[in-house]
Sequence to fold (95 residues):
Amino acid sequence: MVQRALVEPEMSVAQASAMHVGLLQFLLERVNRISGIAATSEQLSGAVEAPLAKAAFVLAQELGWTPQQVNELTLGQVLLNLQMLKERQRQNAAR
Fold:
């Protein structure tokens, strides 16, 4: 993975295999961080607290949608559906 991720300087598989394990671990950690494969607990907490993530969770939970279905919505559609849910909750509370 490190060998393929390095653009400059280019590295052969043999060169990557000959590297010190500590250096390979360091480079792999950086590759994973940059690519988004690895995330710290702070980054995950921030993502969970993001308003759009919360909105996606509410839509999936309330409407029974899959994460993929929610992901296909535009921002406008997300906002419209949230507003419709809010209106429905108001109507149910008024009854």
About this structure: The mean pLDDT is 83. DSSP finds seven helices and no strands in the chain. The chain has two domains: 2-38, 47-94. The CA atoms of residues 60 and 67 lie 7 Å apart.
